[in-house]
Amino acid sequence: MELKYSDLYENKLFERILDRDNDGINVVNKEGILVYVNKVSSDYANTTKEKMLGKHITEFYPAAVLLKVLENKHAILDKKIHYVGEKIYVVSSYPIYIGNQFVGAFSVFKDIQEIDELNKKIKLLELHLTLNKPENDILSVIGNSGSLKEVLIKAKRTVGSLGGPRHSIIIGESGTGKTMLANLIYNYAKKVGVIDNDAPFIEINCAQFTNPDIAAVEIFGSEEGAYTGSKQKKGLFEQANGGILFLDEAHTLEHYQNLLLKAIESGKIRRVGGSKEIGIDVIIIAASTKNLKDELLPELYQRLAQYELYLPTLKERSKDEKELLFSHFIHRYENAVKKLHNIDYKVIFSDESKNDLLTAVYPRNIRQFRDVINYSIDAAAPLISDIDDKKEITTIVETKHLPFEIFDDRIAENKNDNKAKLNKSVKHIILSLNKEGLGPRKIANRLKEKGYNIEYYQVAYFLKKNEQNKS
Ligand SMILES: Nc1ncnc2c1ncn2[C@@H]1O[C@H](COP(=O)(O)OP(=O)(O)OP(=O)(O)O)[C@@H](O)[C@H]1O
Ligand SMILES: [Mg+2]
After folding, report:
1. Could you tell me the pTM of the whole model?
2. Which of 11, 93, 190, 460 could be disulfide-bonded to 69 (CB atoms 3.0-4.6 Å)?
3. What is 5-111's CATH topology?
4. Quick check: 17 pLDDT over 90?
């Protein structure tokens, strides 16, 4: 038997085909009574096709877009709607005419839950990328007329002085802005024309090489056949040619200091397994958390340390500067959200939470300060799904939104201070641990592990008082 087009509806084949579709389909007459639904639609409504037919669509889809089409007789395309529960659909609805008589409407809808979730994840990633991007011009660096004034002048001099660009060293504890400063030097060098606008900035974390042979290949490149399976490959020096080579954690250079020294002294390198010398013109910036004078070969140190730039810790910065950094990171967050979601976004820290943040101890300096601020705003901010169509949102950050770690670090600092009683940070810890389900004895033990001499009855008393105050 031959399949003919007429068989499709005569034998209800259309229905079977439409039931296999991934989209839901509803057809109503002009009163809104369902005359056809496919299986996807009845599955969504958690019932059967038979139970739906002949009933009004609102019994199953209270917010049906079809109702609007019945009213206006115009198609509505891709309207994103939230349906009961968590499900999210894109619906397109169309009027149905027979001849020129309006007889009803149909809609096709697609569950976009997964796409929607992916979309949210991408947006979140984008947000975090923006928040973690280093400042790229000197004007947006906090402290440019304060604690960093001198170091920034010196940094400009490394590449901008009349005698030509020089190699330099940046020393600073973790998170004090070394990578940022290297980027600033790079941008400045481009601005004054010492390097081309498309000059490379190549960053190497020297600690990543544990094997000196691999390090040599990575840094100097290799020729085909230099070792089994080796290919012709440009090393990092060649890649950085005409630009900047940023050697991060330079105190871990160890094994290949000699090779590096030779390259710098001669202005030439040779690929591993190669015989040809390749001329290189590279400005090196070496960064470290340690004093490189004690870590590097004296000759290498001398070559690199034509300028030494020191970055102060967060603790060494003035109260005003800390406040500026605080506002700076809040603004960055606000702006990133504004850009991403197209809403007017404002963040306000309560006086108490601001004070807690500004007086906490940050062993990992500005990076940690930034992360703690971002974390606290994250904890207080609404979920993306709660934004809906709002055009303005204000988030208020309170002490309860701050991460535990900042109170922890404060305690570490006061470790030997036995006299300290239940101060605010200890109270915060007690409440957090209590929320996790720990009782006074366990909490007291935890505090003791942290070096804090608080008795269990003190904890119990505080918790009891706290309960009373609440009620
Ligand atoms: N003075 C400043 N003004 C504004 N932002 C700053 C300042 N200093 C540092 N930051 C920001 O702090 C963060 C950490 O800085 P950066 O990554 O440069 O530190 P680092 O010393 O390289 O850290 P690590 O030792 O972990 O590599 C970055 O987001 C950077 O943009
Ligand atoms: Mg860095």
Report:
1. 0.69
2. 93
3. Beta-Lactamase (3.30.450)
4. no
